[in-house]
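To illustrate the input format used throughout this study, we show a single complete record. The first block contains the structure-token representation of the backbone; no residue identities are included at this stage. The design step must infer an amino acid for every position from geometry alone.
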């Protein structure tokens, strides 16, 4: 199931052509369950920051209400779904941006098999702190990883510090402590919610620079994004991590404590 609305209605042919030909904008992705979303305020804050950065436009006080209504309208009678909310150029390029809400089937609650990841030192997202439409680099990194026999790619910067995966944040386990890399990267909503929940649940965690040379010192690694909180990484390059690592269990238990916000 896939469905898309532009400003609360189906786009016409000219608007579809514009959406397909002008790749400029930013977005957030969320999982809707029983018409609720974890961290809804963080998603709205991300969109507001993106509007200021990429369009020089600060939404009004009623914009969150408008976004809720647009999401609910696109959902229709669906209770569970994957939803992507994007701001893109409007017909008047100097005016406020348009809102695109794309709805698809909900992601599985079960992660894929443990993934084999390779370090791609050339992969770095532009404007890394924002979730934007300039995604060619990450798809190229994924394609090159697949061609080399891997499942995905991990960015390591010129400073030798681990950053992020193509579409995910990464977390490691060292002893009993969860370690999040500190580097130029996207602060994923799921990552931030997990960090808050870990603090509330008393799970030891830290965020600090992680040099690639430290990767052998960790006992587990997981990928985290809006679709999964416990995607185990079986290996990074030739370095293998144990299957069934307890880090995935920590993530799952912590995530279960994060409440849903009603749309």
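Output of the design step:
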């Amino acid at each position: 199931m896939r469905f898309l609305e532009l400003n609360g209605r189906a786009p016409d042919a000219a608007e579809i052509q514009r959406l397909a030909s002008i790749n400029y904008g930013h977005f957030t992705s969320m999982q809707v369950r029983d018409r609720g979303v974890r961290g809804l305020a963080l998603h709205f804050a991300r969109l507001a920051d993106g509007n200021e950065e990429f369009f020089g436009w600060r939404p009004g006080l009623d914009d969150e209400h408008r976004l809720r209504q647009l999401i609910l309208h696109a959902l229709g009678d669906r209770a569970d779904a994957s939803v992507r909310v994007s701001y893109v150029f409007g017909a008047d390029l100097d005016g406020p941006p348009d809102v695109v809400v794309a709805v698809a089937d909900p992601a599985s609650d079960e992660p894929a098999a443990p993934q084999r990841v390779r370090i791609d030192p050339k992969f770095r997202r532009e404007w890394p702190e924002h979730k934007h439409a300039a995604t060619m680099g990450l798809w190229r990194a994924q394609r090159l990883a697949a061609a080399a026999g891997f499942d995905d790619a991990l960015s390591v910067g010129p400073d030798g510090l681990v950053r992020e995966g193509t579409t995910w944040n990464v977390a490691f386990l060292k002893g009993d402590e969860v370690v999040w890399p500190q580097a130029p990267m996207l602060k994923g909503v799921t990552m931030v919610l997990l960090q808050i929940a870990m603090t509330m649940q008393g799970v030891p965690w830290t965020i600090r620079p992680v040099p690639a040379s430290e990767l052998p010192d960790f006992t587990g690694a997981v990928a985290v994004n809006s679709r999964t909180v416990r995607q185990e990484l079986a290996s990074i390059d030739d370095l293998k991590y144990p299957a069934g690592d307890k880090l995935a269990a920590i993530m799952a238990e912590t995530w279960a404590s994060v409440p849903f916000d009603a749309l």
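Structural context for interpreting the output: The chain is about 30% helix and 30% strand. The chain has two domains: 2-104, 115-258.
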